[in-house]
Amino acid sequence: MVTVAPPLRSIRKMIKTIVLIDDHPIVREGLANLLNAVGSYKVVGESGTAPEGLEAIRALKPDVALVDLMLNNSLALGLIEQSTQECPNTKVICVSMHSDAAYAQPVALAGASGYINKANASKTILDAIDVVLRGELYFPKEVHQNFLDSVRGVKSASTQLMALSSREIEILQWIGHGLTKHQIAERINRSANTVEAHRSNIKRKLGLQSNAELIRFAALNLPSASV
User: Fold this and answer.
1) CATH number at residue 202
2) 111 and 42: one domain?
3) What is the CATH number of the domain that holds 109?
4) Residue 213 has what pLDDT?
5) Are residues 76 and 179 in the same domain?
6) What residues make up the domain containing 170?
7) Do residue 61 and residue 139 come from a single domain?
8) Which residues carry this modification: 4-aspartylphosphate (predicted)?
9) Number of C-alpha atoms within 13 angstroms, CB side, residue 20?
10) Helix axes 181-188, 192-206, angle to 10 degrees
C-alpha cells in the first residue's frame, strides 16, 4: 500500500500557529521552546507590550495567543478584549502568576478562552491549547462556580466583578494602588472627567458608597500594579 503525502497546504493547516505576548523575554523563550518541540505547534510571533501584541495578532492571525495577565505593570484586559473582537478566530489564553478565580474572572469576561497559572504552565499549557482549539473553555473550576453563583444571585467579589467592563476593571486596579484620577487618566490616555465617570459607575455597580470602600475593594480583590 502506497501512502501519498498530503499537499504542503494541508500540512500547513495541520500546524497550529501561536503568538506569545509577555514582557519577560526569558518566559517567552521557555514557552517557545516548549511549544516548538511539539510537532503540531509553531510559535510565529512574540512581543513584550500590549500594543505590539495586538499588532502581531492582527498581522499573523494565529490560532492561539498566549497573553500574560500583567504587561508592563498593567492588566492586559484591553488587549484581550480588543483582540478577541477583531480576530475572533484567534483563541486567547491568559497566563498569570495568580491562581485565584478573582483574577481569572475578568479575563473570562474580556473574551479569553482560557486561563492558566504560570507556576503550572509547563504541565497545563498543552492541555489548555488542545481544549480551546476544540472550541471549549479552559478555566479554573472556581470560575465556573462563580458564574453559577451569579446566576443564583450569590454575592461574592468575583461575581461582582462580572458587572464591570474591562476598562472599569483596569481603572479599579489603579484605584486599588492609590492613584488619583489625574494619574489614572494619564496612564489610560483619557481625561480626568472620564475617569471620574468610570469611578462613579464602578461604585454604583459594586454597591459601594464611598471612595474609601472602593479603594479597599480594589486592593483586596485585584492584582496590584507598580507605579
Assistant:
1) 1.10.10.10
2) yes
3) 3.40.50.2300
4) 85
5) no
6) 163-221
7) yes
8) 68
9) 21
10) 110
The reported pLDDT for the residue numbered 148 is 45
How many domains, the chain?
Answer: 2
The per-residue pLDDT string of the chain (227 residues; one tens digit each, 9 = 90 and over) reads 343 444 444 444 588 999 999 999 999 999 999 999 988 999 999 999 999 999 999 999 999 999 998 888 778 888 998 999 999 999 999 998 876 666 777 788 888 999 998 877 778 899 999 999 999 999 877 665 555 454 444 455 555 676 787 788 888 888 887 888 898 888 888 899 999 999 999 898 888 888 888 888 887 776 554 43
Cα(34)–Cα(60) distance, rounded to whole angstroms? 20
* Distance from chain centroid for Cα 84: 10
CA–CA gap between residue 118 and residue 181 (Å, rounded): 32
Q: How far apart are CA 216 and CA 101, in angstroms?
A: 18
**Start-to-end Cα distance in the chain:** 66
* Cα torsion through 131, 62, 27, 11, rounded to 10: 80
Contact in structure between 195 and 172 (CB atoms under 8 Å): no
d(CA 153, CA 50) in angstroms, rounded, equals: 35
Q: Say yes or no: 111 and 17 in one domain.
A: yes
Distance CA 19, CA 5 (A): 28
